[in-house]
Amino acid sequence: xxxxxxxxxxxxxxxxxxxxxxxxxxxxxxxxxxxxxxxxxxxxxxxxxxxxxxxxxxxxxxxxxxxxxxxxxxxxxxxxxxxxxxxxxxxxxxxxxxxxxxxxxxxxxxxxxxxxxxxxxxxxxxxxxxxxxxxxxxxxxxxxxxxxxxxxxxxxxxxxxxxxxxxxxxxxxxxxxxxxxxxxxxxxxxxxxxxxxxxxxxxxxxx
Length: 207
Prior knowledge:
Elements: H1 2-11, E1 17-20, H2 32-46, E2 50-53, H3 72-89, E3 95-97, H4 106-115, E4 124-130, H5 133-147, E5 153-158, H6 167-176, E6 181-184
């Protein structure tokens, strides 16, 4: 359970970064925006954790999608709801914005967030990078060119393949370029990393 996971993590001095993602805006029948607020309220009032909103919102492979239709305007509205509710109850709640797969869409995301009047100065940005030091360097540079600063955290850094020898150099390069926090992502390359029923709903339906 979530309780047990957080207790076990804290026992070892770990800080939990919880990914919150409904995969789409909820319908009126599902409770709409108020149901999202209720879930956020329950989360931040009951657990001491950091909150990441969304993950690869532009991802789709024909089977899974992490945000419905990869619509960044509805995602930005979701972000606004989550931040406002979380900070209403915990003004200092740490918020991390989930990483995009295609960094070229970052400006579109920022534009939509500004339309929703999201305070970009008071949230952190995540990035994903895989495979090589060059990928780390290129993706951080691309992000910084658009946003004006490096990403705050890399929530997925790894190498697909058996040779992991470049991992230390990738970590070192990311830190040198201004990233403050890194999560190593080296789970097995199977559908849903063994955590999903591929015959069931898409991951975006869970939060």
